[in-house]
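Section handout, structural biology tutorial.
Before the tutorial, make sure you can parse a SMILES string by hand: atoms, branches in parentheses, ring closures as digits. In the record below the ligand is adenosine-5'-triphosphate, and the chain has 287 residues. In the tutorial you will relate the predicted structure tokens back to the input. Do not try to memorize them.
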Amino acid sequence: MSHSLPQTAAPEAESVVTVRGLVRNFGNGNVLDGLSLDLQPGSFTALLGRSGCGKSTLLRTLAKLDAAPPGTVTLPDEGAVVFQEPRLVPWMPVLRNVTLGLRHPDAEGRGLAALAEVGLSHRSRAWPLTLSGGEAQRAALARALVREPRLLLLDEPFAALDALTRLRMQGLVETLWRAHAPAILLVTHDVDEALLLADRALVMADGRIAADIPVPLARPRRHGDPGFIALRSRLLSELGIDEERLAGQEPQRGATDSRPADSRPAAPGVAVGGYAMPAGAVAAPSH
Ligand SMILES: Nc1ncnc2c1ncn2[C@@H]1O[C@H](COP(=O)(O)OP(=O)(O)OP(=O)(O)O)[C@@H](O)[C@H]1O
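Predicted structure of the complex:
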């Protein structure tokens, strides 16, 4: 593993996000320990790492939900975030949820356009509690989209969805990314998801970016392509996953697991193709 890798990407004038030496401590050691990061406009980056390594802590800072020490983080004004749970206000119809807080003379028109883009026009007047899990996440995506963000943060947005809905949502996010070109930072536990969607995969460890791996694969991407397989091996290795043990335990490719993520076997924080890793496939922590 490349723990000695330098912190990620040299600064570029055009970065939409710049983080320098970010430290975050909750009283029990540094969760973020001098982390540095640059994201370029329109880039699609996946962020992986063991459970508890600080991915969501970083994301919360980039979402301006947690304050950062002065001078450590530069962010665009236009940012949006989608979480694992859709976080819709239950007493407001879908369209109102999408336009909530939007200052625009034609907020409703823009909200309807965003709902159309995610295929949810017919549910604009529905109450959030009547939506399916996938519909609710699409509404959350529309709420993010309507703000035309330069930075879109996705914190495991597909993790609670069944396998088929997850695939559809991944396709939708890729389509929206192509159409609107925000810089996307996707936190995921799923190595295949990272490689299907992102052009760059970051692995967090020890409170920093421990590996910064370009994903120069043509789209649409396929699991079986040699380049995909090679990058998958590299990422698993960076994450400390024993691929040989994994090969004996992973479900057959193409099978679907319709159970929600939280009912699958306990995982140490990494999955492949939507499947949680069996604990035995994970090497002893070396971070
Ligand atoms: N508000 C908080 N107060 C105290 N500790 C916190 C707080 N937020 C996060 N932590 C701790 O910081 C560490 C990193 O948490 P974080 O949620 O960022 O990890 P993660 O990589 O996103 O994990 P997972 O993949 O399991 O979601 C954990 O040990 C967590 O308990």
